[in-house]
Specification:
This protein is mainly alpha-helical and 263 residues long. It is 75% helix and 0% strand.
């Protein structure tokens, strides 16, 4: 791509990011369709959904993505050279697509078009997986990790779990109430752990793993909370605890790679 093409992509990234932020803000400020995002979630019984407080991670995600959006324009960069321009162009295309999908997800979700919202979530996770692939082979400085890698690692981690939760909601919406049973919740949680550990090992990404721990801790908190599920599903609680332990162990192996050799 030419230099002009690269600049156009950066503008598209900025515009689509702002549209995504605007729609997410309006989702609860208006709210869209006179329904908040949480009210839509509460309309479908889902034992996999984490505690409400867990969703505060979206604020961190959007803040980190704002940092990336500014960084690609040269802000916060001591060296304004073109060493990362090719990467910004490649990442920018998929980031822009994911932002559009995110914005459309908000609209479809608030209008209870759960099937469409699930497809949009799949698009988001596919884009973020591609970005993770693009970033995995790069040798980043600490600053580059903070502004380029970490934002997408955390975003990818959260959307990985959100896609699974959205799938359960979709299945409930089409009439398969059994998907929200304790048995199927445990099965899906185990599948989520398998996916999470596989991707964690694939990308050797500590930030990604921390988000998985956060998400499953949110599930645990909701299940033990007297105001929520009040420990009525002990098998789900046990599965959440085991999952968190597995994620923590996987993180330890990343932090101390020598343990892999001894094991």
């Amino acid at each position: 791509m030419s230099k002009n093409d690269g600049f156009v992509i950066k503008i598209v990234v900025a515009v689509t990011y702002l549209v995504m932020i605007l729609l997410n803000g309006l989702a609860n400020a208006l709210p869209i369709n006179n329904t908040t995002t949480g009210e839509v979630s509460d309309a479908f019984f889902d034992l996999f959904a984490p505690a409400t407080i867990t969703f505060g991670i979206w604020g961190l995600i959007y803040l980190l993505l704002a940092g990336y959006t500014l960084y690609q324009f040269g802000l916060f960069q001591a060296d304004k050279g073109a060493s990362r321009e090719s990467l910004f162009q490649k990442v920018g295309i998929y980031f822009a697509i994911s932002s559009v999908a995110n914005a459309l997800w908000i609209v479809s979700w608030h209008y209870y078009a759960v099937g469409i919202s699930f497809l949009l979530m799949v698009i988001m996770v596919a884009c973020l997986y591609t970005i993770a692939n693009l970033l995995s082979g790069e040798n980043f400085s600490i600053k580059e990790k903070a502004f380029i890698q970490v934002p997408f690692s955390i975003y990818f981690g959260w959307v990985t779990v959100a896609t699974i939760a959205n799938f359960i909601t979709f299945m409930v919406s089409i009439g398969w109430a059994g998907i929200a049973s304790q048995f199927w919740t445990v099965v899906i949680m185990v599948i989520g752990v398998a996916i999470g550990v596989t991707l964690l090992r694939r990308f050797q990404d500590i930030a990604y793993g921390l988000v998985l721990i956060w998400a499953y801790t949110g599930i645990l908190v909701k299940h033990i909370s007297p105001a929520e599920f009040a420990a009525n599903y002990p098998v789900v609680i046990a599965t959440a605890i085991i999952a968190i332990i597995i994620f923590v162990v996987a993180e330890v192996f990343l932090v101390y790679p020598g343990m892999n050799q001894r094991a």
